[in-house]
Structures are given as structure tokens and as C-alpha cells.
From TrEMBL:
GO molecular function annotation: ATP binding; tryptophan-tRNA ligase activity
NCBIfam families: trpS
GO biological process: tryptophanyl-tRNA aminoacylation
InterPro entries on file: aa-tRNA-synth_I_CS, aa-tRNA-synth_Ic, Rossmann-like_a/b/a_fold, Trp-tRNA-ligase, uS15_NS1_RNA-bd_sf, WHEP-TRS_dom
Protein's name according to its UniProt entry: Tryptophan--tRNA ligase, cytoplasmic
Cellular component terms (Gene Ontology): cytoplasm
Region (Disordered) location: 63-92
Pfam families cross-referenced by the UniProt entry: tRNA-synt_1b, WHEP-TRS
Family assignment from sequence similarity: Belongs to the class-I aminoacyl-tRNA synthetase family.
Domain of life: Eukaryota
Coiled-coil spans in chain: none
EC number: 6.1.1.2
Keywords: Aminoacyl-tRNA synthetase, ATP-binding, Ligase, Nucleotide-binding, Phosphoprotein, Protein biosynthesis
Length: 476
């Protein structure tokens, strides 16, 4: 799935961006005058809004038609704000950023994307239907948003099964701890609902977006598959596939790609993803490839040609644009819409203004890091919500809402009562920043070491077995 940083919008200066905005505004008016389809108009408007946001970020001023920017117009760089900001968070498949030290405003993001909140009623219902205590990611709002999850549960209660689909964009040999979040949760879903899983490794996408060879992208896919297998997935219920391999081996998969491609216009993908005329055609057509695993007929070896088995996609919410497009297309090509469960972002060590990125070693804790490296990275780079001196911290307490060590514990510490006690102690000043970081280090080191041990036990034969198209143990 898309995870890499974007290549920009092609505008190198405020004037170039201004000209793009003017042209896009004219296109919106032309589409409305021509009474174009709602989908085309909406896509063009979305791109216009995105360009306006980019313009304000670049110049510090709102776009005004007929008022071009001055030659040297550039927004001042005052650094990240400690509190909130009025500017909208940037969230797309390639970029995540906010000015708020607490991270992205997920309540606003739900409204902006038009999804539904994972509320207590839904968590309670998942517990009732599954017969299992909700995963800590559900209990703590880490998976916070959904599309059609109640519909999935309705069908499941009527003995109609579903399947899971998630993915990974393999841009390097080593994954970081943030990459584990969807796989940890997906494994829990697979276990409690006893359903099959398909995992898409988008090595084709990484070749299109990154300065990498095709051979390296495929090799990274195989290496990343080992980390995914090490999460404990059941080989009898899990199919992991590389796009570069599976697209050529499955006519049914490719036919679904083509069906999606026919039903999405260039204007729509520009509006959804911000593609420009300077982007390669591979990028423009790629969203259809990420859409195809949402349809059960893409995997005839698993579902025996069935087209009506619903898909549930656990993923970070930056991937939602792909599946908004997919959900729009699905009924037009005779398939059920995929349902989604969206997670929050795993913050960079330097703070929640952006997500952890594999491209910067200092923002990330990799699954290959030694206990010493983990300790050094947390102590040196993890953003603190504590006060400047011990005396001030004891008196006023720290802010767990912006403290990265506490945020990470929210993801990985299982005990709810222990986590709440840590929050209260830190906020009261009873727990110091160094002590909080020590707790995180003691949580991460054994977790990553255990993962490394499991990965060492993954053989090439086992990888081949997971990645071979085959029937799975699935009754439907």
C-alpha cells in the first residue's frame, strides 16, 4: 500500500502554483457549465481545494483570483506550534503533517473524509459478536474510524463470512514498529473471526514512486513478507502476494484492475490523489491495482470465483482515498463495497506532527534495531511532554498528550490500568520523563527481540508457501 513521501505537485514557485490554481478553477467552471457528472465535478473541486491549501502553505496567503503572488512570496517558517493551529491537517497517502503537538485532529478527519467514528456501541458489538475482549487498539481508539463495519457484523451474525485485506509498500528491507500496527490488529481479527487474509505487497508502486530498481523493490517485498509472517499469521488462512508476481499469474486479478480503470476518469484520480500532468502514467493507473484485492473474484484459488464475499480492510486512514474510489466503483462493476477500519498514525520519535518514516532513521525504531539502539533512540530523540527542570516537573507535572514515550506505550502496553496509572503519575509530576522513557524502553526491547527471534525462524520455504496462490482453509 502507498506509504512513501510524495514527489510534490510539480509547482516549483508560487507563480507556477498560482497558474495551476487559475487553470483548475477554470476547469471546475467548465465542467459545471457542461453539466458533467457529479463524480467528475467533485474530483475537480477536491483538486482545487488541495491546490489552494498548497498555495497557502507555500505563500502564507489565501489564493485570490486575479491577484498573483509577488515574485518572492514565501510563507514564513516559524516552526511547529505547541498548541493547535487553524490550518487543516495534511493527510494523504504520501504525506501526513500537522501543526498540533498532539497530532492530527481525528474528529475533524472523520468529518472531512465522511467516515464513521468507532464508538463504544461498535466496540461493544464487536465484543459480543466475536466473543472476545476487544483488542487494546479498539479499547483505546487507535482504530477510531470505520466504513460499514456494522454491515459486516450484520452479515457475520447471519453466518455470512468475510475476508481481510491489508498491505505493505516495501521501500526498504527493514520495517519499523509503526508498520506493525495494522498487522498486529489484522492478526487479532483473523483469529477471533476465523477468516482468510490477503496481504498485498505493492512493490510495483514503490518502483513507480521511489528511485529504486525493480529488482530491489521485489527483493524488499520478500524481506518484508518475512516480518509479516513473523507476526504469527496462519499459513492455512493467509495469502501474501507481490504485485509484480501475482498480476502476471492471475488473469482474474488483472481483469478486475481493468474494470476499475475503465470506471475512473483522469479528472477523478487527479482530484483524489493530486496527480499532475508531469506524473508518470504508472502512478495514474496504480490506484486500480490497490483496489483490486477488495474484490473476492481477484482470488479464484481462495473463493472459487465467488464475487459476493465482502472484504474488510484494516489500514491507516491515509490510505482511505484509495478505498473511497474503490467504494464508488464497486457497485458499478457488480461487487460489494469493501468495509474499512482506520487506525491513527504512529508518531515519529520527534513528535506527533508527522508519522514515523522509514526514510529517516532518527525518527524511527526499526525491527532490526538492537536493544542498545532502541535505548539510545528513545532517550535521545523521543519528544518529551515534561518540564525543563525536575523541580518544575515535580510541581506542575508533564503532558502525556504530547509525550511520544507515553503515546508509544498506548500502542504497546497491554494493561489498561497500568497505562492509566502511568498517565496520572506523569501528569501529576510523580513520574519523571527519564522514568517514563525507561518504561517504554523496557516495553520495546523484549517485544522487538521476540519479533527478531520469530523472523529468524521464517524459512525461504515458508515464505514461498505463504506467497504461492493456493486454496485456503475457508468455509463459505
Amino acid at each position: 500500500m502507498a506509504e512513501c513521501q510524495g514527489d510534490g505537485e510539480g509547482a516549483k514557485s508560487p507563480m507556477e502554483l498560482y497558474e495551476k490554481l487559475t487553470a483548475q478553477g477554470e476547469q471546475v467552471r467548465a465542467l459545471k457549465t457542461a453539466k458533467a457528472t457529479k463524480a467528475d465535478v467533485d474530483a475537480a473541486v477536491q483538486l482545487l481545494i488541495k491546490l489552494k491549501t498548497d498555495y497557502k502553505q507555500m505563500t502564507g496567503q489565501d489564493y485570490k483570483a486575479g491577484c498573483p503572488p509577488s515574485e518572492n512570496s514565501v510563507a514564513p517558517d516559524n516552526g511547529p506550534a505547541a498548541g493547535g493551529a487553524d490550518d487543516e491537517d495534511t493527510v494523504d497517502p504520501w504525506n501526513v503533517s500537522t501543526n498540533n503537538a498532539k497530532g492530527v485532529d481525528y474528529e475533524k478527519l472523520i468529518l472531512r473524509f465522511g467516515s464513521s467514528k468507532v464508538d463504544k456501541e461498535l466496540v461493544d458489538r464487536i465484543e459480543k459478536v466475536s466473543g472476545q475482549k476487544p483488542h487494546r487498539f479498539l479499547r483505546r481508539g487507535i482504530f477510531f474510524s470505520h466504513r460499514d463495519m456494522h454491515q459486516v457484523l450484520d452479515a457475520y451474525e447471519k453466518q455470512k463470512s468475510f475476508y481481510l485485506y491489508t498491505g505493505r509498500g516495501p521501500s526498504s528491507e527493514a520495517m519499523h514498529v509503526g508498520h506493525l500496527i495494522p498487522f498486529i490488529f489484522t492478526k487479532w481479527l483473523q483469529d477471533v473471526f476465523d477468516i482468510p487474509l490477503v496481504v498485498q505487497l505493492t512493490d510495483d508502486e514503490k518502483y513507480l514512486w521511489k528511485d529504486l530498481s525493480l529488482e530491489d523493490c521485489h527483493r524488499f517485498a520478500v524481506e518484508n513478507a518475512k516480518d509479516i509472517i513473523a507476526c504469527g499469521f496462519d499459513v492455512n488462512k493467509t495469502f501474501i502476494f507481490s504485485d509484480l508476481d501475482y498480476m502476471g499469474a492471475s488473469p482474474e486479478f488483472y481483469r478486475n484492475v481493468v474494470k476499475v480503470q475503465k470506471h475512473v476518469t483522469f479528472n477523478q484520480v487527479k482530484g483524489i490523489f493530486g496527480f499532475t500532468d508531469s506524473d508518470c502514467i504508472g502512478k495514474i493507473s496504480f490506484p486500480a491495482i490497490q483496489a483490486a484485492p477488495s474484490f473476492s473474484s481477484s482470488f479464484p484459488q481462495i473463493f472459487k470465483g465467488r464475487k459476493d464475499i465482502q472484504c474488510l480492510i484494516p489500514c491507516a486512514i491515509d490510505q482511505d482515498p484509495y478505498f473511497r474510489m474503490t467504494r464508488d466503483v464497486a457497485p458499478r462493476i457488480g461487487y460489494p463495497k469493501p468495509a474499512l477500519l482506520h487506525s491513527t498514525f504512529f508518531p515519529a520519535l520527534q513528535g506527533a506532527q508527522t508519522k514515523m518514516s522509514a526514510s529517516d532513521a532518527n525518527t524511527s525504531i526499526f525491527l532490526t534495531d538492537t536493544p542498545k539502539q532502541i535505548k539510545n533512540k528513545v532517550n535521545k530523540h523521543a519528544f518529551s511532554g515534561g518540564k525543563d527542570t525536575v523541580e518544575e516537573h515535580r510541581k506542575y507535572g508533564g503532558n502525556p498528550d504530547v509525550d511520544v514515550a507515553f503515546m508509544y506505550l498506548t500502542f504497546f502496553l497491554e494493561d489498561d490500568e497500568q497505562l492509566e496509572k502511568i498517565r496520572q503519575d506523569y501528569a501529576s509530576g510523580a513520574l519523571l520523563t527519564g522514568e517514563l522513557k525507561k518504561l517504554l524502553i523496557e516495553t520495546l526491547q523484549p517485544m522487538i527481540e521476540q519479533h527478531q527471534q520469530r523472523r529468524k525462524q521464517v524459512t525461504e520455504e515458508e515464505v514461498k508457501q505463504f506467497m504461492t496462490p493456493r486454496p485456503l482453509h475457508f468455509n463459505f
